[in-house]
Amino acid sequence: MEKRHPRILFRKRLKELRADVEQMGKEALSAYRDSIKVLLKYDEEKIKRIVETADKIDEMNYNLEHKTLSVIASEQPVAGDLRFIETCIKVGGHLKRIGYLASNITEVAKKIKDEEVPEKPMDDIIHMADIVENMVSKSLAAFLGQNMDIARELRRDDDKVDDLFDRALKDITQSMFDDQETISYLVYLLFLARILERIADRAENIGDRTIFMITCKKP
Amino acid sequence: MEKRHPRILFRKRLKELRADVEQMGKEALSAYRDSIKVLLKYDEEKIKRIVETADKIDEMNYNLEHKTLSVIASEQPVAGDLRFIETCIKVGGHLKRIGYLASNITEVAKKIKDEEVPEKPMDDIIHMADIVENMVSKSLAAFLGQNMDIARELRRDDDKVDDLFDRALKDITQSMFDDQETISYLVYLLFLARILERIADRAENIGDRTIFMITCKKP
Q: What's the rounded Cα separation, in Å, for the pair A30 and B79?
């Protein structure tokens, strides 16, 4: 029995890392969801919570990094275990970024809250936002469940987001043409589309890392 | 003597990590500089090289990550050494991102190459680009020379970039008002301003990590 104890402790520490990433994922997803709600219905209180959540995820990521490095230093894991730990660090970094991007969305919400945003570009944005929400959720499921199929789907989703971004770009510039008065706030809609695209990229990256963790091959 | 050998080897491995980051930094800075040149004078060949450099830095970063984790696993470093190694991973990640952002700048160059971009927003952009170049260069000097003063300067520089970004945003939307025909390509100038801002953020982050590495306190 003597020799088994350290192994059991090691497994426990890996499980803890996974639980930390899961918690960070939940926070990031909820911050993102709320940021889209705030876009549709302005809410100062909610914005405050989103900004706090982003900072909290940053703090959690900082702790996660330290934990992972201390596990590596003390346990000297190899192969699959090492790849799992590396992936935790990477996924944590992406989730932290998603938290801050959600917080950036609330800044756009502030800029457009008193404007009558034309329907067409806003529809594009909301369509993008829905797919992106799905992607973040899928990326967590892929990593936590070590599920290759879901991870692969993220690449197709990201292509969809890229297409929608191009359409949003076209519709936004068209609205600027149609009514010059809109230019001053429609620029923020452009930034918003970019933020959504970047969140989608992060979700895709989480999927790619998951594939790499399982197969040891870059997708 | 017997006991000294592993220590000497360990120091050698740390030096190697530093040299790797230095090389990545040189590549990232040169890709960025070239991307700004391409913006002013379109050059297909140069663009190809920038895109290749971004991929090369990505590959170097991938190798750096593996090297760092293997040093941690085999040497179990503590305190200052561990913080140095962690900082190498972080700085590597930022440099990789700067490489891809330089590659994004070349996409903007493609979009605006046949347009007569109004002088005023372009002046703002070039002014921003100069400060950002300086920041990337300073961030490398701060990390490689473990220089707190330079690292602290980056915070002030970043404030300057933020101000210039706001001015560029104002000038670009004004140009859109003045001449509607410009809207379709001026949106890319907006994206460009955002890319520059993001590169500045990465440089500032490298400075912050350097301060943390030296003082063990978040700036």
A: 35
CB-count exposure of residue A131 (10 Å: 0-12, 13-18, 19+): middle
Q: How far apart are CA A184 and CA B81, in angstroms?
A: 50
Dist CA B219 CA B213 (whole Å): 11
Q: Rounded to an integer, what is the distance from CA A39 to the centroid of its chain? A: 17
Q: pLDDT by residue for chain B (219 residues), tens digit each?
A: 445 567 788 899 999 999 999 999 999 999 999 999 999 999 999 999 999 999 999 999 999 998 998 888 888 887 889 899 999 999 999 999 999 999 999 999 999 999 888 888 899 999 999 999 999 999 999 999 999 999 999 999 999 999 999 899 889 988 888 888 888 889 999 999 999 999 999 999 999 999 999 998 776
Contact map slice: A 84-103 vs B, CB within 8 A: 86, 93
Tell me, yes or no, if B169 comes closer than 8 A to chain A by beta carbon: yes
Token pair for B159: 């404030």
In the numeric block, which tokens belong to residue A218? Answer: 């870059």
Domains defined along chain A, listed by start: 4-215 (1.20.58.220)
Establish whether this prediction's ipTM goes over 0.95. Answer: no
**Facing residue for B72 by CB, picked from A72, A93, A187:** A72
Q: Is the pTM of this model over 0.95?
A: no
Closest CA to A207 of A163, A158, A165: A158
